[in-house]
Amino acid sequence: MKKLLLVSVLFTSLLAVSCSQPSNGISRSQDNWLADSVPSIKQTYSDTFDYIGLAVEYGNFGLKCTGNKYTGTYTHDKSWGTPSELYYSEVQQGISKHANTITLGNELKPQFLLQWWDGDGSSQPTAKFTASNGQIIQVPDKLNGEALIYATLNAAKNAGVKMRGHVLTWHSQTPEGFFREKYSKDGALVSKEVMTARHEWYIKTVLECVAQWEKANGYAGKGTGNHLIWAWDVVNEAMADDASDPSTDSWLRGSTAGTKDKDPANGGSRWYEIYKNEEFIINAFHFANAYAPADVKLCYNDYNEYMANKTSSIEHIARLIKKGEEQLIAGKSVSPRLDAIAMQSHVGTSWPSISEYESALKKFLAIADVHVSELDFNAETQQAAEKA
Predict the structure, then answer these.
(1) How far is CA 83 from CA 22, 23, 89, in A?
(2) How confident is the model over 69-94, as pLDDT tens digits?
(3) Which of 67, 111, 185, 229 has the fewest CB atoms within 10 Å, i.e. is most exposed?
Protein backbone atom coordinates (compact mmCIF):
# COMPACT_ATOMS: atom_id res chain seq x y z
CA MET A 1 0.00 0.00 0.00
CA LYS A 2 1.31 3.43 -0.94
CA LYS A 3 1.62 5.81 1.99
CA LEU A 4 2.07 9.47 2.76
CA LEU A 5 5.03 10.54 4.88
CA LEU A 6 5.53 14.02 6.32
CA VAL A 7 9.29 13.98 6.29
CA SER A 8 10.70 17.49 6.22
CA VAL A 9 8.78 20.47 7.48
CA LEU A 10 10.31 23.89 7.02
CA PHE A 11 9.78 25.14 10.55
CA THR A 12 12.14 27.95 9.65
CA SER A 13 10.18 30.48 11.70
CA LEU A 14 10.58 28.24 14.74
CA LEU A 15 14.31 28.01 14.16
CA ALA A 16 14.67 31.72 13.47
CA VAL A 17 12.87 32.70 16.65
CA SER A 18 14.24 29.99 18.87
CA CYS A 19 17.88 29.86 17.91
CA SER A 20 18.84 32.90 15.88
CA GLN A 21 21.87 33.53 18.11
CA PRO A 22 23.44 30.14 18.88
CA SER A 23 26.30 29.30 21.22
CA ASN A 24 27.64 32.18 23.31
CA GLY A 25 25.08 34.57 21.89
CA ILE A 26 22.16 32.19 22.29
CA SER A 27 18.82 33.95 22.34
CA ARG A 28 16.90 33.38 25.55
CA SER A 29 13.84 32.72 23.37
CA GLN A 30 15.47 29.34 22.78
CA ASP A 31 13.92 28.37 26.10
CA ASN A 32 10.55 28.52 24.36
CA TRP A 33 11.03 25.48 22.18
CA LEU A 34 12.87 23.50 24.83
CA ALA A 35 10.46 24.31 27.65
CA ASP A 36 8.43 21.45 29.12
CA SER A 37 5.29 23.45 28.40
CA VAL A 38 6.00 23.32 24.65
CA PRO A 39 4.85 19.96 23.26
CA SER A 40 7.19 17.96 21.06
CA ILE A 41 6.11 18.16 17.42
CA LYS A 42 7.30 14.65 16.60
CA GLN A 43 5.50 13.18 19.61
CA THR A 44 2.32 15.11 18.89
CA TYR A 45 2.09 13.63 15.39
CA SER A 46 3.69 10.24 16.07
CA ASP A 47 0.44 8.35 15.46
CA THR A 48 0.03 10.00 12.05
CA PHE A 49 3.48 10.33 10.51
CA ASP A 50 6.56 8.10 10.59
CA TYR A 51 8.89 11.07 10.24
CA ILE A 52 8.70 14.69 11.28
CA GLY A 53 11.59 16.74 9.97
CA LEU A 54 13.18 20.16 10.23
CA ALA A 55 15.09 21.99 7.51
CA VAL A 56 18.37 23.25 8.97
CA GLU A 57 21.68 24.74 7.93
CA TYR A 58 25.07 23.65 9.23
CA GLY A 59 27.03 26.28 7.32
CA ASN A 60 30.06 26.06 5.05
CA PHE A 61 33.32 27.16 6.64
CA GLY A 62 36.84 26.11 7.51
CA LEU A 63 36.63 22.76 9.28
CA LYS A 64 39.11 21.20 11.68
CA CYS A 65 38.85 17.49 12.43
CA THR A 66 40.21 16.06 15.65
CA GLY A 67 40.60 12.30 15.25
CA ASN A 68 39.56 9.99 12.44
CA LYS A 69 37.78 11.74 9.56
CA TYR A 70 34.71 9.52 9.97
CA THR A 71 34.41 9.42 13.75
CA GLY A 72 36.35 12.48 14.84
CA THR A 73 35.06 15.82 16.09
CA TYR A 74 34.60 18.65 13.60
CA THR A 75 34.95 22.25 14.69
CA HIS A 76 35.20 25.64 13.01
CA ASP A 77 38.90 26.37 12.44
CA LYS A 78 38.12 30.12 12.32
CA SER A 79 39.91 30.53 8.97
CA TRP A 80 36.77 31.50 7.06
CA GLY A 81 32.99 31.23 7.07
CA THR A 82 30.40 31.17 9.81
CA PRO A 83 28.70 28.13 11.37
CA SER A 84 24.93 28.02 11.37
CA GLU A 85 22.09 26.30 13.26
CA LEU A 86 23.01 22.60 13.22
CA TYR A 87 26.59 23.28 14.28
CA TYR A 88 25.52 24.27 17.79
CA SER A 89 24.65 21.81 20.55
CA GLU A 90 21.88 24.10 21.80
CA VAL A 91 20.11 23.80 18.47
CA GLN A 92 20.75 20.07 18.30
CA GLN A 93 18.84 19.73 21.59
CA GLY A 94 15.82 21.49 20.13
CA ILE A 95 15.94 19.43 16.95
CA SER A 96 16.13 16.27 19.03
CA LYS A 97 13.02 17.26 20.96
CA HIS A 98 10.87 18.18 17.99
CA ALA A 99 12.06 16.05 15.03
CA ASN A 100 13.36 12.63 14.11
CA THR A 101 14.84 13.63 10.74
CA ILE A 102 16.40 16.71 9.17
CA THR A 103 17.04 18.03 5.67
CA LEU A 104 20.10 20.19 5.06
CA GLY A 105 19.57 23.39 3.13
CA ASN A 106 22.78 23.47 1.07
CA GLU A 107 25.49 21.26 2.46
CA LEU A 108 24.85 18.12 0.36
CA LYS A 109 24.27 19.94 -2.93
CA PRO A 110 26.88 19.52 -5.71
CA GLN A 111 28.04 23.13 -5.38
CA PHE A 112 29.02 22.56 -1.75
CA LEU A 113 30.57 19.12 -2.24
CA LEU A 114 32.62 20.04 -5.32
CA GLN A 115 33.40 23.54 -3.96
CA TRP A 116 34.36 25.16 -7.25
CA TRP A 117 33.15 28.52 -6.03
CA ASP A 118 33.68 30.31 -9.33
CA GLY A 119 32.13 27.36 -11.17
CA ASP A 120 35.49 26.29 -12.63
CA GLY A 121 37.15 23.02 -11.69
CA SER A 122 39.83 23.01 -14.38
CA SER A 123 42.69 23.49 -11.90
CA GLN A 124 41.74 20.55 -9.68
CA PRO A 125 43.88 17.40 -9.99
CA THR A 126 42.10 14.50 -11.66
CA ALA A 127 42.10 10.72 -11.62
CA LYS A 128 40.98 8.11 -14.15
CA PHE A 129 37.49 6.64 -13.87
CA THR A 130 36.02 3.83 -15.93
CA ALA A 131 32.27 4.25 -16.13
CA SER A 132 29.65 1.57 -16.65
CA ASN A 133 28.92 2.91 -20.15
CA GLY A 134 32.51 2.15 -21.18
CA GLN A 135 33.74 5.73 -21.05
CA ILE A 136 37.18 6.21 -19.50
CA ILE A 137 37.31 9.77 -18.25
CA GLN A 138 39.20 12.06 -15.94
CA VAL A 139 37.31 12.98 -12.78
CA PRO A 140 38.17 15.20 -9.79
CA ASP A 141 40.60 13.42 -7.49
CA LYS A 142 38.29 14.11 -4.53
CA LEU A 143 35.20 15.91 -3.35
CA ASN A 144 36.63 19.12 -1.93
CA GLY A 145 33.68 19.25 0.46
CA GLU A 146 34.03 15.67 1.68
CA ALA A 147 34.60 16.82 5.27
CA LEU A 148 31.28 18.66 5.11
CA ILE A 149 29.53 15.32 4.57
CA TYR A 150 31.09 13.82 7.68
CA ALA A 151 30.66 16.94 9.81
CA THR A 152 26.94 17.20 9.07
CA LEU A 153 26.37 13.48 9.58
CA ASN A 154 28.16 13.74 12.93
CA ALA A 155 25.94 16.67 13.92
CA ALA A 156 22.80 14.72 13.02
CA LYS A 157 24.06 11.74 15.01
CA ASN A 158 24.72 14.01 18.00
CA ALA A 159 21.17 15.33 17.72
CA GLY A 160 19.82 11.78 17.64
CA VAL A 161 18.03 12.24 14.32
CA LYS A 162 18.21 10.78 10.83
CA MET A 163 18.68 12.75 7.64
CA ARG A 164 17.03 13.11 4.26
CA GLY A 165 19.75 13.51 1.63
CA HIS A 166 19.28 16.56 -0.60
CA VAL A 167 20.27 16.44 -3.45
CA LEU A 168 22.18 14.28 -5.97
CA THR A 169 21.03 15.72 -9.32
CA TRP A 170 19.87 19.31 -9.83
CA HIS A 171 20.00 21.90 -12.58
CA SER A 172 20.82 24.57 -10.00
CA GLN A 173 23.73 24.85 -7.56
CA THR A 174 25.88 22.58 -9.68
CA PRO A 175 29.15 24.18 -10.88
CA GLU A 176 29.14 25.20 -14.53
CA GLY A 177 32.40 23.39 -15.13
CA PHE A 178 30.87 20.05 -14.18
CA PHE A 179 29.06 20.06 -17.54
CA ARG A 180 31.97 21.30 -19.68
CA GLU A 181 35.20 20.09 -21.26
CA LYS A 182 38.16 19.90 -18.86
CA TYR A 183 35.76 21.09 -16.12
CA SER A 184 36.35 24.63 -17.34
CA LYS A 185 33.42 27.00 -16.95
CA ASP A 186 34.28 28.38 -20.40
CA GLY A 187 34.64 25.00 -22.13
CA ALA A 188 32.20 23.43 -24.57
CA LEU A 189 29.44 21.24 -23.16
CA VAL A 190 30.54 17.60 -23.05
CA SER A 191 28.79 14.79 -24.91
CA LYS A 192 25.99 12.93 -23.19
CA GLU A 193 28.22 9.82 -23.01
CA VAL A 194 30.86 11.74 -21.02
CA MET A 195 28.18 13.43 -18.91
CA THR A 196 26.69 10.04 -18.06
CA ALA A 197 30.11 8.87 -16.89
CA ARG A 198 30.59 11.99 -14.78
CA HIS A 199 27.09 11.56 -13.36
CA GLU A 200 27.85 7.99 -12.30
CA TRP A 201 31.15 9.03 -10.72
CA TYR A 202 29.50 11.79 -8.71
CA ILE A 203 26.59 9.72 -7.36
CA LYS A 204 28.91 6.78 -6.63
CA THR A 205 31.40 9.00 -4.79
CA VAL A 206 28.83 10.75 -2.62
CA LEU A 207 27.02 7.56 -1.67
CA GLU A 208 30.26 5.73 -0.91
CA CYS A 209 31.36 8.57 1.39
CA VAL A 210 28.09 8.21 3.29
CA ALA A 211 28.42 4.41 3.41
CA GLN A 212 31.97 4.64 4.80
CA TRP A 213 30.85 7.10 7.47
CA GLU A 214 27.90 4.88 8.44
CA LYS A 215 30.12 1.79 8.69
CA ALA A 216 32.64 3.60 10.89
CA ASN A 217 29.89 4.94 13.15
CA GLY A 218 28.11 1.67 13.85
CA TYR A 219 25.25 1.94 11.41
CA ALA A 220 24.39 -1.48 10.05
CA GLY A 221 24.65 -2.52 6.43
CA LYS A 222 22.14 -3.18 3.72
CA GLY A 223 18.74 -4.61 4.49
CA THR A 224 18.48 -3.41 8.07
CA GLY A 225 16.86 0.01 7.74
CA ASN A 226 19.49 1.33 10.14
CA HIS A 227 20.93 4.21 8.13
CA LEU A 228 21.45 7.80 9.16
CA ILE A 229 20.53 8.96 5.65
CA TRP A 230 17.30 7.05 5.12
CA ALA A 231 16.15 8.77 1.89
CA TRP A 232 17.69 10.69 -1.00
CA ASP A 233 16.30 13.27 -3.39
CA VAL A 234 17.91 11.68 -6.43
CA VAL A 235 16.61 14.29 -8.89
CA ASN A 236 15.26 17.71 -7.99
CA GLU A 237 12.98 20.06 -9.93
CA ALA A 238 13.50 18.69 -13.43
CA MET A 239 9.95 19.50 -14.59
CA ALA A 240 9.12 22.92 -16.07
CA ASP A 241 6.51 25.19 -14.49
CA ASP A 242 5.20 25.94 -17.98
CA ALA A 243 5.11 22.28 -18.96
CA SER A 244 2.76 21.16 -21.69
CA ASP A 245 1.09 17.79 -21.77
CA PRO A 246 3.81 15.11 -21.50
CA SER A 247 2.70 13.69 -24.86
CA THR A 248 4.43 16.73 -26.35
CA ASP A 249 8.14 17.46 -26.26
CA SER A 250 7.75 20.41 -23.87
CA TRP A 251 7.53 19.22 -20.30
CA LEU A 252 11.09 18.96 -19.00
CA ARG A 253 12.96 21.95 -17.62
CA GLY A 254 14.97 23.27 -20.55
CA SER A 255 12.48 22.21 -23.21
CA THR A 256 9.74 24.81 -22.71
CA ALA A 257 9.31 28.39 -23.83
CA GLY A 258 10.02 29.57 -20.30
CA THR A 259 13.20 27.51 -19.80
CA LYS A 260 14.70 26.78 -23.23
CA ASP A 261 18.24 28.07 -23.85
CA LYS A 262 18.38 29.74 -20.43
CA ASP A 263 21.20 29.24 -17.96
CA PRO A 264 20.39 27.38 -14.73
CA ALA A 265 20.26 30.59 -12.69
CA ASN A 266 17.45 31.78 -14.96
CA GLY A 267 15.47 28.55 -14.98
CA GLY A 268 17.29 26.56 -17.63
CA SER A 269 19.04 23.20 -17.35
CA ARG A 270 22.46 22.10 -18.55
CA TRP A 271 21.27 18.54 -18.07
CA TYR A 272 18.59 19.05 -20.70
CA GLU A 273 20.94 20.98 -23.00
CA ILE A 274 23.22 17.96 -23.13
CA TYR A 275 20.62 15.17 -23.31
CA LYS A 276 17.58 16.80 -24.99
CA ASN A 277 15.36 14.28 -23.19
CA GLU A 278 14.75 12.57 -19.86
CA GLU A 279 17.65 10.09 -20.16
CA PHE A 280 19.69 11.77 -17.43
CA ILE A 281 16.80 11.36 -14.96
CA ILE A 282 16.51 7.63 -15.66
CA ASN A 283 20.30 7.37 -15.38
CA ALA A 284 20.26 9.03 -11.95
CA PHE A 285 17.85 6.43 -10.57
CA HIS A 286 19.93 3.65 -12.13
CA PHE A 287 23.08 4.94 -10.44
CA ALA A 288 21.39 5.64 -7.11
CA ASN A 289 19.94 2.13 -7.05
CA ALA A 290 23.34 0.66 -7.89
CA TYR A 291 25.26 2.49 -5.16
CA ALA A 292 22.73 3.21 -2.38
CA PRO A 293 21.63 0.59 0.17
CA ALA A 294 18.54 -1.27 -1.00
CA ASP A 295 16.47 0.01 1.94
CA VAL A 296 17.30 3.70 1.49
CA LYS A 297 14.37 5.48 -0.18
CA LEU A 298 15.03 7.03 -3.58
CA CYS A 299 12.86 10.04 -4.42
CA TYR A 300 11.96 12.50 -7.14
CA ASN A 301 11.43 15.97 -5.58
CA ASP A 302 9.64 19.00 -7.07
CA TYR A 303 7.70 22.19 -6.26
CA ASN A 304 4.41 23.54 -7.66
CA GLU A 305 3.59 19.88 -7.95
CA TYR A 306 -0.15 20.60 -7.74
CA MET A 307 -0.20 22.65 -11.00
CA ALA A 308 -2.16 20.43 -13.40
CA ASN A 309 0.40 20.24 -16.20
CA LYS A 310 3.27 19.84 -13.77
CA THR A 311 1.38 17.09 -11.95
CA SER A 312 1.04 15.29 -15.27
CA SER A 313 4.75 15.74 -15.99
CA ILE A 314 5.75 14.32 -12.63
CA GLU A 315 3.36 11.40 -13.10
CA HIS A 316 4.89 10.79 -16.51
CA ILE A 317 8.52 10.79 -15.38
CA ALA A 318 7.69 8.63 -12.36
CA ARG A 319 6.12 5.99 -14.58
CA LEU A 320 9.06 6.13 -16.99
CA ILE A 321 11.50 5.58 -14.12
CA LYS A 322 9.53 2.65 -12.75
CA LYS A 323 9.33 1.05 -16.22
CA GLY A 324 13.02 1.59 -16.91
CA GLU A 325 15.01 -1.35 -18.23
CA GLU A 326 17.90 -2.99 -16.45
CA GLN A 327 21.41 -1.81 -17.21
CA LEU A 328 24.80 -3.16 -16.24
CA ILE A 329 26.07 -0.77 -13.55
CA ALA A 330 29.28 -1.55 -11.67
CA GLY A 331 29.14 -5.13 -12.89
CA LYS A 332 25.57 -5.88 -11.85
CA SER A 333 22.23 -5.68 -13.60
CA VAL A 334 20.30 -2.74 -12.13
CA SER A 335 16.88 -1.23 -12.80
CA PRO A 336 16.10 2.41 -12.02
CA ARG A 337 14.35 2.52 -8.62
CA LEU A 338 11.83 5.15 -7.51
CA ASP A 339 10.35 4.71 -4.04
CA ALA A 340 8.67 8.05 -3.46
CA ILE A 341 7.54 11.28 -5.07
CA ALA A 342 8.42 14.19 -2.83
CA MET A 343 5.93 17.06 -2.82
CA GLN A 344 7.76 20.14 -1.58
CA SER A 345 4.44 21.73 -0.60
CA HIS A 346 5.16 25.45 -0.44
CA VAL A 347 1.53 26.32 0.14
CA GLY A 348 -0.49 29.41 1.01
CA THR A 349 -3.93 30.27 2.27
CA SER A 350 -5.18 31.13 -1.22
CA TRP A 351 -3.28 28.65 -3.41
CA PRO A 352 -3.28 25.77 -3.98
CA SER A 353 -6.83 24.82 -3.10
CA ILE A 354 -7.38 21.72 -1.01
CA SER A 355 -8.88 19.99 -4.04
CA GLU A 356 -5.86 20.84 -6.22
CA TYR A 357 -3.44 19.50 -3.64
CA GLU A 358 -5.55 16.42 -2.99
CA SER A 359 -5.82 15.66 -6.70
CA ALA A 360 -2.05 15.69 -7.15
CA LEU A 361 -1.52 13.68 -3.97
CA LYS A 362 -3.90 10.92 -5.08
CA LYS A 363 -2.31 10.72 -8.53
CA PHE A 364 1.16 10.38 -7.04
CA LEU A 365 0.05 7.80 -4.47
CA ALA A 366 -1.17 5.64 -7.35
CA ILE A 367 2.47 5.36 -8.46
CA ALA A 368 4.65 5.47 -5.33
CA ASP A 369 4.82 6.62 -1.73
CA VAL A 370 4.64 10.38 -1.19
CA HIS A 371 6.92 12.48 1.00
CA VAL A 372 5.88 15.99 2.01
CA SER A 373 9.43 17.18 1.79
CA GLU A 374 9.63 20.96 2.32
CA LEU A 375 6.33 22.01 3.86
CA ASP A 376 5.84 25.68 4.63
CA PHE A 377 2.85 28.02 4.77
CA ASN A 378 2.51 31.52 3.40
CA ALA A 379 -0.10 34.00 4.60
CA GLU A 380 -0.37 37.74 4.03
CA THR A 381 -1.47 38.39 7.60
CA GLN A 382 -1.33 36.68 10.99
CA GLN A 383 -5.13 36.62 11.03
CA ALA A 384 -5.19 34.75 7.72
CA ALA A 385 -2.70 32.23 9.04
CA GLU A 386 -4.73 31.63 12.18
CA LYS A 387 -7.93 31.23 10.15
CA ALA A 388 -6.23 28.69 7.88
Answers:
(1) 9, 10, 12
(2) 999 999 999 999 999 999 999 999 99
(3) 67
